[in-house]
Structure formats: structure tokens, C-alpha cells
Amino acid sequence: MNISVDLQIAVEDEDQPPPEHIQQWVAAALTQAQQADSLTAPELTIRIVDEAEITALNRDYRNKDQATNVLSFPADLPDPIDLPLLGDLVVCAAVVKREAEQQHKNLNDHWAHMVIHGTLHLLGYDHIEDEEAEIMEGLEIDALATLQIANPYILEINNAVNL
């Protein structure tokens, strides 16, 4: 699958995943969502930021004045324009790293989960309602499994029980 990922790195962090991993994670999400064949050369931007930038975006767009792991901004193109633009993902390196440590997860695996999660949001999936969450989490689990990454939701349950 030919995917165009515009990777913007606004914060230096030696633990950031390489661009080829990010592209694999996006492809895994598209494949599980059965969007791989329907989108010709999909394009998205992934911006890796610090806590100040993601806090400002979260406050401005979601009215939540706090840092978060990933924000998704789906492309909103007028009807006559038919481009394979998915939108933008903004990922906070510090929050992803902190969550991985707190949840006792492999950092690379957590990055994969966040990129897949954000990509599914760009495709219109959500997790507000229980039924929607079940569908979205199932796609995430399946996409991660294709990358030999364990179900992150089982890890969260196990870690909560062991604390």
C-alpha cells in the first residue's frame, strides 16, 4: 500500500519511533478498517509535539486544558475536491512515554497503539458509546496483532489488578 505520511517532528526525543514504523502502523490501521483498497495513496500528517503544544490544541479544540496522548483532526474537504487526505494526527511524545511507563508497556508498542488509534479516528471511528468503543478497540487489537503486539486493553486490566 502506498501511503504518504508527512512526519513533522516539533520536539526532539531519542525514544521516537522511526518513520518506517509509523508508516507500518498507519497501514495496519487502514487494512483492519478495510480502507486499504478504497483509498488510493492515502495521505496524512503526523506531528510529534511537546506537552505545551498538545495542551493548547486540546484546550482550543476539545475544551480540555490538559495534555493528552493523541489528537485527530480528520480532513474536511468540500465535496467537489476528491483527494485521499485523511487528516492530521498530533502525538505528544512525553505523554506517550509517561503512559507506557505507568502502564508497564513497551514504549514502541504503545506508540503503535496511539498511531493506530488516531488513524482510526481519522477514518471516522470513535469510542464514546460502548458499542462504538467495542468496534474501534477490536480494530485496534487486530491491527496490533498483525504487528505481533499484544492486546493493550488486556495489559491495562492486568496492570490495574497487579497495582
Helical content class: 40-55%
Under the CATH scheme, the architecture is: 3-Layer(aba) Sandwich
Total beta strands = 4
Rg over C-alpha atoms, rounded to the nearest angstrom:
15 Å
- Give the amount of beta strand, in percent: 15-25%
Low-confidence stretches: none
Number of helices: 6
Can you tell me the CATH superfamily? Answer: Metalloproteases ("zincins"), catalytic domain
Q: Would you kindly provide a written description of the structure presented here, covering whatever features stand out?
A:
This protein is α/β, with parallel strands linked by helices. It has one domain: Collagenase (Catalytic Domain), CATH 3.40.390. Helix content is 49%, strand content 16%. It contains six helices and four strands, in the order βαβαββαααα. It has a four-stranded mixed β-sheet. Helix 1 links the parallel strand 1 and strand 2. Helix 1 crosses helix 5, helix 3 crosses helix 4 (107-122) and helix 4 packs across helix 5. The longest helix is centred in the last third of the chain and has 17 residues, at 130-146. The mean pLDDT is 90.
